[in-house]
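Fill in residues.
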């Protein structure tokens, strides 16, 4: 089945804010609020990613890719609809502390079908409510643009190659591959 990628770019939302305000706001949006919006299968481990690795640098800061593949979504908001989703979260590490989260770009991959359209619209509305720019890519990702990894349970799975993901983010969502979306100290 063809998938849809939704790119969530913070743009200029965090410009002029302190690093603490940025981290607090992003955590509230990306974790506290997002986890209330999306209902996952309770058996799914939301705390352990399938992949976590530094993929590039921006402004001399490492950008970490956290990947959750095949997340079993049960519903979004008041929409009850089961489908798998994958999340690619790009976050800079500042001051060597990977436990404090700062935004760079969030990307979701969902099946491209009429059944997921309303659910995707809800997610886009959520990010837009926080001032983020949202972009969609409905193109096919060829198998040679995916890499094999082992998921958190040791099972083989595929994810989009980080280099290809970066190129798509630049092309589709105006991703800045050199600078952070906020000035980092």
């Amino acid at each position: 089945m063809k998938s849809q990628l939704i790119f969530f770019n913070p743009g200029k939302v965090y410009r002029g804010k302190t690093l603490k305000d940025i981290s607090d706001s992003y955590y509230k949006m990306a974790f506290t609020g997002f986890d209330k919006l999306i209902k996952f299968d309770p058996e799914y481990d939301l705390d352990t990613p399938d992949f976590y690795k530094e993929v590039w640098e921006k402004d001399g800061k490492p950008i970490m890719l956290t990947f959750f593949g095949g997340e079993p979504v049960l519903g979004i908001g008041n929409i009850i609809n089961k489908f798998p989703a994958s999340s690619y979260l790009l976050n800079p590490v500042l001051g060597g502390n990977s436990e404090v989260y700062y935004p760079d770009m969030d990307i979701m991959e969902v099946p491209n079908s009429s059944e997921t359209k309303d659910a995707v619209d809800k997610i886009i509305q959520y990010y837009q409510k926080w001032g983020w720019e949202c972009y969609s890519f409905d193109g096919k990702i060829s198998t040679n643009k995916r890499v094999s990894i082992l998921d958190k349970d040791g099972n083989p799975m595929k994810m989009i190659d980080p280099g290809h993901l970066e190129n798509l983010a630049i092309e589709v969502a105006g991703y800045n591959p050199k600078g952070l979306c906020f000035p980092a100290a």
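The longest helix spans residues 19-37.
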